Amino acid sequence: MISGGDKAICKHCSKILSAKASHGTNSLNTHVKSCKGLQSQSIRSEGSQGTIRIGQFDKTHETNAKTELGNMIIMHEYPLSMVEHLGFKRYSKALQPSFKVPSRNTIKKEIMKIYEFKKEKTMKTAVEYKIVFPALKTRGYKDVPSEQDWNLVVEIAEKLQLFFKATELLSGTKYPTTNLLFLKICQIKLAISKWFQYDISEVVEMAKKMEEKFEKYWGVIGTIVVATILDPRYTLKLIEFYFKQVYPRRVALKVDRVKKFAHDLVKEYSSCAMSHASDNSSLIESTRPSDNDLGDDDIDAYDAFVSGSSKNTDKSDLERYLDETVLPTVNEFDVLYWWKTSGMKYPTLYKVARDILAILISTVTSESAFSTGGRIVSLHQNRLHLNTLEVLICGQDWLWSELRDTPSTLEDDIDADEESCHDSDVEFTPHQTNDTNTRRGRAARTCFSPLF
Q1: CB burial class (10 A; 0-12, 13-18, 19+) of residue 369?
Q2: Which end of the chain has fewer CB atoms surrounding its CB within 10 Å, N or C?
């Protein structure tokens, strides 16, 4: 009884509802269908006995659900596009309304994380059993990894980490990546140069092949180097820092060339802005009041006063920007927010930053998953990247192996699923190019030009 009337309090959202006998249960049933608290409830199994527990569906549960979705796609060779199918979205919402179905790009990143985790776990397990391999010789095994082989694996794995971290960083879609390219490219170039000094022939040979491919990209990053200047943590200082290592005898020449390139770009933007302003001058004049708060004499005097008291009036936006002290190199830095809040004092350079920083260095394409064996490179899947092939094939093998080695009450279901996975005919849709990504890639390519 609340306020003189019969009321009911929802256990899930604490909303007070009418409970009069004359109203029946219609209002209560209606609330059950729309109750936000009830929708966020998570029914899950815990422990070896399969205990059922009801609780809030929080961020942790959503992360676990996304990981399991990635596992499912890997294990059963489902296409990545299934997460965008209307039927799958409706099915997921029926199971858990609070779960947000990830996009194809997001689930691909999740699959990459699963792969890297399993790969690292597999390598650690192999190293732990390193002492076992020599004992296999007594059983007739001929090709057993030697101590030199193990050292080589560790050496190469450490070097490949540089490429993995660079790829992971530059593949981001929720933050600018153009301003980070020069930094990572220089780190890779210097690393490859150092590998030539190693006394391990395999490392030297790897470095030769990498350098051959790398040089194709080094000399054509053109406009993208301007993005480094547009990052107030780096500006021209970072370019000078790395050019001293890459071009120890031609630092000044190379830096001046980059600076001239940036000046020409800003000048081009400035000319376009002046032309645009001239075209719209009649419109501006027609809407401008005829009277001014200052008299004609005062206006002339005021303009003369401003000209005499201002400093660096002849400097361009780029020169004034480069005169500023560089910001500390913190990781959690939002370059777009900085230009939004602090960049307005450089109006022309602001427009350059708006266009250049919007370019994505890497567009993550969404591809269908595939089957192993004879279906790996089929007529419908002959354009998958080798890295994607490796991730899905190895990831599937590791996940199934892990399930087989783990006691489970669902053993029969696991065996049946695996048999179905390998024996059934799986039909895939042909690879299609995303029009938006194609346009972005074309736009980005137009901003690459020889510079170094």
Answers
A1: buried
A2: N
